[in-house]
Write a structure and sequence with these properties.
mainly alpha; single chain
């Protein structure tokens, strides 16, 4: 698998993961089918769209509508199966799926910025983070949920570390992009999965308590 094929596979897998978890996140609010599909698509493509606008390149899904179709189909399936997926054990599994999506999208975004040689070495990390969490932040704002960055759970931190790790690995072994991406993505997913399983949050010294007034 070459670098281009790797990037495409990661993008599609992340699209499915994000669309499904987005629908599951908003269905408790009583959203209809159309709204669920909109939320699923926005979450799946939002981060990558913001990244491409910053890079001033054609938006990735404009030249390949398969991203939209995959996000739409995934959203439809998740909406129809939301009663089953809404069970506690299944919802827990969906959190891990979201962690997988974050890992996939962060590496994909970082890889694309590196290929374009844009703002090395800081921009690949920053835009990798944007790719991973931009869609989720947009979804939470539209749905009126507390955004990911306002929570104390380990979410953006493993993404940041994973993007840094991939940037370092690709600088050392540029011919091993797929392996570098796999290692970095597994790192992100492992940390996120550990945070979900053991409910690991940021330490108190790294957070502030909400104002009670």
């Amino acid at each position: 698998m070459n670098a281009e094929e790797f990037q495409y596979f990661v993008g599609m897998a992340g699209t499915v993961a994000f669309a499904v978890t987005a629908v599951l996140a908003v269905t408790p609010k009583g959203i209809d089918l159309f709204g669920a599909c909109v939320m699923g698509i926005i979450t799946a493509i939002g981060g990558g769209t913001i990244r491409d606008l910053i890079l001033d390149v054609p938006v990735f899904w404009a030249s390949d509508l398969m991203y939209i179709w995959v996000a739409l189909l995934s959203s439809l399936v998740a909406f129809q199966a939301n009663r089953f997926m809404g069970r506690k054990s299944i919802y827990q599994a969906m959190l891990y799926l979201d962690g997988l999506g974050v890992a996939l999208f962060s590496i994909q975004g970082t890889h694309k910025v590196i290929l374009l040689d844009f703002g090395w070495p800081l921009a690949p990390v920053l835009l990798g983070i944007v790719t991973a969490i931009g869609g989720g932040l947009t979804r939470d704002v539209l749905a009126g949920n507390t955004t990911l960055l306002m929570k104390h759970e380990l979410y953006a931190v493993p993404v940041t570390l994973g993007c840094v790790l991939y940037t370092v690995l690709i600088a050392i072994w540029p011919e091993q992009a797929a392996l570098d991406g796999t290692v970095s993505g597994l790192f992100i997913f492992a940390v996120r999965a550990a945070a979900i399983h053991w409910k690991i949050a940021l330490p108190h010294w790294a957070t502030t308590q909400p104002n009670k007034e």
